[in-house]
């Protein structure tokens, strides 16, 4: 899978996308992420990519021309399955959306800043708008990093048995069960006996029951969907 990202702050994305599992995905050739600095398509020598909004009001808006030119240049390299604008007024990201996106070949993500991007880019290029939750970030970069991480880790071969996505919270509509590691007793706090039983069937049953219990307790909305 290839993900292109248009941003005015590539530095904000470099670190999160080049460590741990995202790094492994790219090293293995399963995921390619390419950052594009929108200032390379600026309208003048000062690197301008934003301007005041029509109708007045505080805050700058990212201009059509740099975005359109950048997008069109990237479109000459390949057709995008989705052109995603990350924005607080988009549909809220969830595991099901990440699963869907993980099946795509080429995705373009546009990160907004200031008051956002000119509506005409949304109307004429963007195919999907995604938010990562009901709060406002200073720009789309951190949201894009979240999106790429949640999608990238689902690509076949990225995770191994130990990190398998199959047992993640949400993957089966339930929250994950509690986990424990050595020692079996710490300050008198014991690991549940069943996990030491060596009986995989009992362990699996216990985990499923804990998952149900925890989901009912913390996120009953997940069970009624
Ligand atoms: Cl995608 N962008 C910004 N700026 N803020 C957000 C968001 C996105 N999702 C939640 N808050």
Topology of helices and strands:
Blueprint: E1 2-7, H1 10-17, H2 20-27, E2 32-37, E3 50-52, E4 60-62, H3 64-77, E5 82-92, H4 95-101, E6 106-111, H5 119-124, E7 128-131, H6 141-152, E8 185-186, E9 189-190, H7 200-218, H8 220-223
Parallel strand pairs: 1-2, 1-6, 5-6, 5-7
Antiparallel strand pairs: 3-4, 8-9
Helix pairs in contact: 1-6
The structure holds 6-chloroguanine.
The site of 6-chloroguanine (6GU) has 12 residues, from strand 5.
Short summary:
35% of the residues lie in helices and 19% in strands. By secondary structure, the protein is α/β, with parallel strands linked by helices.
Labels describing this entry:
Trp Operon Repressor, Chain A, 8 helices, binds 6-chloroguanine, 225 residues, alpha/beta, Alpha/beta knot, 9 strands, five-stranded parallel sheet
Report on this structure.
α4 (95-101) links the parallel β5 (82-92) and β6 (106-111). α1 packs parallel to α6 (141-152). The protein folds into two domains: 2-152, 3-Layer(aba) Sandwich (Alpha/beta knot), CATH 3.40.1280; 169-224, Trp Operon Repressor, Chain A, CATH 1.10.1270.20. It has 225 residues and is an alpha/beta fold. The model has no long low-confidence stretch (mean pLDDT 95). Helices cover 35% and strands 19% of the residues. The chain binds 6-chloroguanine. 6-chloroguanine binds next to β5.
């Amino acid at each position: 899978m290839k993900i292109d990202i248009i941003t005015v702050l590539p530095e904000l994305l470099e670190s999160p996308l080049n460590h741990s599992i995202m790094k492994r995905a790219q090293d293995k050739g399963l995921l390619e992420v390419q950052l594009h600095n929108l200032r390379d398509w600026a309208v003048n020598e000062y690197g301008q990519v934003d301007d005041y909004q029509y109708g007045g009001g505080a805050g700058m808006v990212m201009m059509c021309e740099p975005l359109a030119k950048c997008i069109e240049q990237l479109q000459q390299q390949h057709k995008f399955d989705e052109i995603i604008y990350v924005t607080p007024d988009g549909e809220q990201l969830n595991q099901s959306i990440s699963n869907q996106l993980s099946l795509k070949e080429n995705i373009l993500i546009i990160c907004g800043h200031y008051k956002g991007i000119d509506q005409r880019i949304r109307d004429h290029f963007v195919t999907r708008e995604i938010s990562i939750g009901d709060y406002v970030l200073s720009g789309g970069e951190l949201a894009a990093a979240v999106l790429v991480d949640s999608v990238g880790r689902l690509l076949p071969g990225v995770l191994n048995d130990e990190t398998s996505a199959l047992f993640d919270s949400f993957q089966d509509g339930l929250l994950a069960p509690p986990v424990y590691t050595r020692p079996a007793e710490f300050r008198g706090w014991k690991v549940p006996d069943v996990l030491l039983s060596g009986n995989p069937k009992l362990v699996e049953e216990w985990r499923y029951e804990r998952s149900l219990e925890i989901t009912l307790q913390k996120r009953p909305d997940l069970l009624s969907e």
